[in-house]
Amino acid sequence: MSAILRYGDAMQTVSAALMPIPGHIDPVPVPRGVQPRPDGRVDLIGLTKDQLREALLSGGMELKQAKLRSKQIWHWLYNRGATRFADMTDIAKAQHPWLEERFVIGRPEVVEAQVSSDGTRKWLLRSADGQDYEMVFIPDADRGTLCVSSQVGCTLNCRFCHTGTMRLVRNLTAGEIVGQVMLARDSLGEWPSQPEGRMLTNIVMMGMGEPLYNFDAVRDALKLVMDGDGLALSKRRITLSTSGVVPMMARAGAEIGVNLAVSLHAVTKDVRDELVPLNKKYGIEELLQACADYPGANNARRITFEYVMLKDKNDSDADAHELVRLLRHYDLPAKVNLIPFNPWPGADYECSTPERIRRFSDIVFEGGISAPVRTPRGRDIDAACGQLKTAAEKKSRAQLDREAEEKFAALG
Ligand code: SAH
Ligand code: SF4
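Above: the input record for the complex with iron/sulfur cluster. Below: its predicted structure, written as tokens.
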């Protein structure tokens, strides 16, 4: 029983994990936890190889068996994408019921799935305890990028971001984070893991939530994603986006080591304080210094600075020149991603005009820094981050079920 208890303890640690209350710049921690599964079974998704072995031991399996079986099961889960013990052909049939009694192989429940005319797919997912979060897949000619959520909602309240307006917030577990990647693989038919010819080639931690406010789970999930025996995505193809949680950036570099994206969005204190309230705590200079110190950043692996284009707010020529000055001052191996603002009902801002965005891009480019304009994708399905969840809340459950079925039938 000991390891189940140990796993149980881990669950309790998650439950007791301190979550900041939305609306505070310096968040006040309150507990908001994951509910354990009602049937008492343990979900194996999200466990490391060692934790998986411990889970088997805790069920009463003998050590030598547990060592062997954990390796086999881990391979079935992350390399082959198995969702049933019955499919694990090298595990004795007699052991299948024993495993089924104690463990599940979870996937997030799909509440709604949408496909855009440009091929972008968006899913609204639901956790076992009824929390909704989003995932988006963006196919391109030479790659396919999965945008993964780290939290349900977000505590940081950036003024232009719809996710920041959601009241309900909890951290996703490592299993729920890696579970998004696994669900996407299911849907794209990309099992077993193979090095070549994948549709899903890149991952960005740019869905709902602030990944560096859920550090441990994000790290553990990305380690599973990067494991060469399992999902096997290279760290060079994974990008973590942060709004600027400065004290966690060095740890992200050291313990995860993926590419870094920083949501800068403004070059003056006043404007960034308004757009990204966390700026009142960790200012632009401090943030850029943390970027300069980020391990592994060099010209081959540049830091991406995200800059949402907001009409008459942060899009002047002077802003563009100041952006160049700042990035050069800190000698940053940088690339700027200009994101046309994705409007949502009730937003305080408008998107800059295409001419303004082009001019801004040219100035930054002339300053020696690449500044592509990100093409909006999936605008015909609910667009900006957080919108799918809100739209779905207005629909009945039955209607959502019907739509999900139809969409998945269409996906083939
Ligand atoms: N919390 C992290 C990652 C999730 S947000 C962060 O802030 O970096 C991912 C990116 O989408 C961020 O750059 C964010 O600023 C941007 N974003 C959020 N809402 C947007 C909107 N309505 N239009 C355009 N970009 C938006
Ligand atoms: Fe949170 Fe990122 Fe949205 Fe800001 S932009 S509210 S940090 S998800």
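Notes for the reader.
Residues 4 and 10 are 10 Å apart (CA to CA).
The pocket of S-adenosyl-L-homocysteine (ligand 1) is lined by residues 154, 158, 160-162, 206, 210, 241-243, 263, 306, 308, 339, 341-342, 384-385 (CB under 6 Å).
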